[in-house]
Amino acid sequence: MPIEQSQGKVVLKHPKGASAEILLYGATVLSWKAASATDVMPKERLFVSGKAALDGSKPVRGGIPVVFPCFGAPSHPDHSKLPQHGFARSETWSFSDVVLDNEAGVSVRLTLLPNDSIQARFGKPFELAYVVTLSEHQLSTDLHVKNPGTPGSATLEFQALFHNYIRATANDVLVTPLQGVTYYDKTEATDELKAQPKTETRSGVDVKTFTDSVYENAGGKYQVAWPGGGVQVKTRNLKDVVIWNPQAEAGSKIGDMEGGGWEKYVCVEPGYVRGFVVLAGGETWVGQQVLTVTDGSLGAIA
Ligand code: TA6
């Protein structure tokens, strides 16, 4: 299965037409094209703003940015010098190797190690590997975080999240099942740490109005659906999920958001963002998501 590298990108192609494009800057998946079981032609499943910077000058507005070691504004002493959402999405990763390449799918590994720019702002040792796997109807992304220290050395404490911009008719989207899950709204505080916990009462969460909610211990399996389209998100080790859409008033103030961009996506972002993963020396943590194209049925998750 062809894997092409050029101009700072890695392109994966599947014999039945699916494809994925990864920018080495930020290890950002820029494109995922796939057909559902009922589609004929592969369709673009991610949203990237027409005003997104793709030259490495700033994190990409769209696709799947990798958020590490902190989500949102830093709240851990080790992260105090870092920008919002950490450094992983604004560093250039290295193409390491092909993990899998057969008729079922193709999988590549990118890596990120401390460099001067990172070490000036984050003093802990780490090794990151990011494995992106494409099959006919699925795309998976796995973030491997290793604490390279010896057993008993300093712990590595972090948050991690896949900031998925799922291409959708935003005002018709429903995300299930989140009913009964505790969540924190950023709308009520400068960030969700200060917000009071609420319990989701809706059977399906919509983003018809400004939405910026962090769902804690959310179950790890979500259906994002709208008339005619849908994506299922299944996760491992990512206990929380963020649902975000700024809508027009806030969206129009985002400098690299194309006009009306907020109408074309919903961010459904699985992560470990309430609290911190604490990794002992020598240990490795893996957070995984598997995105599957569904036929857009608005039913609850299978
Ligand atoms: O994931 C939701 C969120 O934290 C929102 O609060 C909003 O800030 C969004 O991320 C985009 O953040 P960015 O730093 O990419 O502009």
UniProtKB/TrEMBL annotation:
Active site residues per record: 163, 269
Catalysed conversion reaction: alpha-D-glucose 6-phosphate = beta-D-glucose 6-phosphate
GO biological process: carbohydrate metabolic process
Keywords: Isomerase
EC number(s) stated in the UniProt entry for this protein: 5.1.3.15
A GO CC annotation given for this chain: cytoplasm
Record keyword Isomerase present: yes
SUPFAM superfamilies hit by this protein: Galactose mutarotase-like (SSF74650)
One matching Pfam family: Aldose_epim
CDD domains, sorted: D-hex-6-P-epi_like (cd09020)
GO terms for MF: carbohydrate binding; glucose-6-phosphate 1-epimerase activity
The family this protein is said to belong to: Belongs to the glucose-6-phosphate 1-epimerase family.
Function per UniProt: Catalyzes the interconversion between the alpha and beta anomers from at least three hexose 6-phosphate sugars (Glc6P, Gal6P, and Man6P).
Protein name: Glucose-6-phosphate 1-epimerase
Species of the source: Phanerochaete carnosa (strain HHB-10118-sp)
Upper taxonomic lineage: Eukaryota, Fungi, Dikarya, Basidiomycota, Agaricomycotina
